[in-house]
Amino acid sequence: MKHLLSIKEFTQPQLLALLKLAKEIKAQPAQYRHALAGKSIVMLFEKPSLRTRVSFDIGINKLGGHCLYLDQQNGDIGKRESVADFAANLSCWADAIVARTYRHSTIEKLAKYGSVPVINALSDLYHPCQALADYLTLAEQFDDLSQVKLAYVGDGNNVTHSLLYGAAILGMTMTVVCPEGHFPDGLIVSEAQALAEQHGGKIILSTNIAELSDQDAIYTDTWISMGDSTNLDDIKQKFAKFQVNKALMSKAGARYFMHCLPAHRGVEVTDEVLDGEGSLILVQAENRMHAQNALLVSLLT
Predict the structure, then answer these.
(1) Residue numbering of the annotated binding site for L-ornithine
(2) Residue 9: phi, psi to the nearest 5?
(3) Active-site residue 130, yes or no?
(4) Catalytically annotated residue among 127, 161, 259, 290
(5) Does 80 qualify as catalytic in the annotation?
(6) Mind listing the domains of the chain with CATH numbers?
(7) What is the pLDDT along the chain (301 residues), one digit of tens a residue?
């Protein structure tokens, strides 16, 4: 791999190897403290961030590398100068570019016109670094990910897309339950279903939350994606029955709860579940750093 633009670029052996490396880096960080010595990584962010920015910055430092953060106070990348020129110039100095953008096309252009690895730290279509951390988290709970049943409940978005590709490649069974009109992108679902069939997994879509059962973990996200101007009050009624609460967790038989954060407490998930014994949210947050460090080591060494 030269870049990470989407989870779908992984083969199953590559994805499993990355998760294994992430476990090793997490367990023995001292062995990797010079892995990126002499390397400089530019973090190019159009959108605000807590977990992505901090986990990359501190993670790069732990690997012995140097991180430079650039925000876009003047607006989207490409307005002041073209994305192509931006990518070519950054490639003169940096060893890699980590980009968090509004449009996935911007990520693709950075990879096309730059000459260094580009990592998608979030776009409108995908959030691959989040999904890597999520599957690392599940791999710490289950010996065989192909036997895991994961349910995603709520609004189909960029996180859902990356989770779908990851589940399909790993041969998992993933069920996506959304209100009508809020399913993930149809082409991405079709591609994920084809990958799942290839690897012995299964992708299931439903609008009936009452039928959700026999799950190992339930995952949800905010009902409105970052940058969406929709009023939360306008969709609460439509999404109300898709809230993850104790009753849903018990009915589905799910031991674990997952959320990429930030969460709206009492909206898509109750405090009881978010702070409960089976909640993996802080493990997911920590694992952002370890999964991303494994990715950086894989791409740059």
Answers:
(1) 158, 221, 225-226
(2) -75, -15
(3) yes
(4) 127
(5) no
(6) 3-127+288-300 (3.40.50.1370), 130-284 (3.40.50.1370)
(7) 899 999 999 999 999 999 999 999 999 999 999 999 999 999 999 988 999 999 999 999 999 999 999 987 656 788 888 999 999 999 999 999 999 999 999 999 999 999 999 999 999 999 999 999 999 999 999 999 999 999 999 999 999 999 999 999 999 999 999 999 999 999 999 999 999 999 999 999 999 999 999 999 999 999 987 666 778 787 888 999 999 999 999 999 999 999 999 999 999 999 999 999 999 999 999 999 999 999 999 999 9
Instruction: Check if 127 is active-site.
Output: yes
260 is catalytic: yes
Q: Is 283 helix (H, G, I), strand (E, B) or coil?
A: helix
Write out the binding residues for carbamoyl phosphate: 100, 127-130, 260-261, 288
Q: How many CA atoms lie within 13 A of 217 on its CB side?
A: 29
Binding site per annotation, positions: 100, 127-130, 158, 221, 225-226, 260-261, 288
Pick the catalytic residue from 3, 130, 178, 243. 130
Active site residue 288: yes
